[in-house]
Design brief:
By secondary structure, this protein is an alpha+beta fold. The protein has six helices and 13 strands. α4 runs parallel beside α5 and α4 packs antiparallel against α6. The longest helix is centred in the first third of the chain and has 40 residues. The radius of gyration is 29 Å and the shape is globular. About 6% of the residues have low confidence.
Length: 296
Amino acid sequence: MKILNNNSRKVDVSMKNGIFKRLLSAAVCLVMMFSLLSISIYAEDDIRVFVNDELVMFDQPPIMQDGRTLVPLRAIFEAMGAEVDWNSYTQTVTGTKSGIVVVMQVGNNVISRNGQDITLDVPPQIVNDRTLVPVRAVAESFNAQVNWYHYMRMVRITAYTPTSMPQNDFQARFDEAYNYYRNFIVELERVIASFAANYQGDIPTIRNLSEFGFSEHGESMAERNLATAFIMIRNARADTAVLQSRGRLLAAFTANRTITPAERDREREEIRQLEDDLRRRFGEAREWLDRAREAL
């Protein structure tokens, strides 16, 4: 039988402690390495937002929800050059710039722009104690152009100002915008006509007024009337998408027999009334376009 003296036991324990410390150090290094790696990957996957080619810095990374990019409200409003007022009691944010007043409320998918309601796909919400708002809704409310680059995970906002606005011939720009919006109304009318079958079909994306170099607060009556027509058409387009969704739901409920005949008939009547209302609004938008042309 092998007998170990006290010195041998001390050496054995010392060796074991040394091995344990080395293993612990290696484990700590591995944890730190993977932590740094995960941080690097997260940073690369972050959505980046540029306003006039300047990167906007956020204390809460942007998120993607239902195909919409949401960003911290104060940072994006200030990047757009808007003054920001936050009411913590009602959880309402008000942004003001160049006579444009935009009001948003957490959890409410209807925002106000100079008193006119606009329906959003995704409402403002609170994430990690930060209020996030849909970046496209904010930017377009202040007449900016928004582009989303999917593979780069990048939002590029061009906020036109009097110095950056295209300076090509006013008449040429007006004719281009006038013809575009007239044709856009025709396209929306075709979409609604196709709803009679199955509520399928693509709803076209509308070009922002600023893409033609115009503002809602231009110096000329022609430009302001054109802006009024644009707002009406843009809102009608949003309501056309809502109408399409209601029609699809009605068709699904009818097929699955999850609603009564009376409920189905009431919903059909409401949808028909919405369609009639949209056609009336298209006519009013045409009138504003014609007023804009007459004011040239």
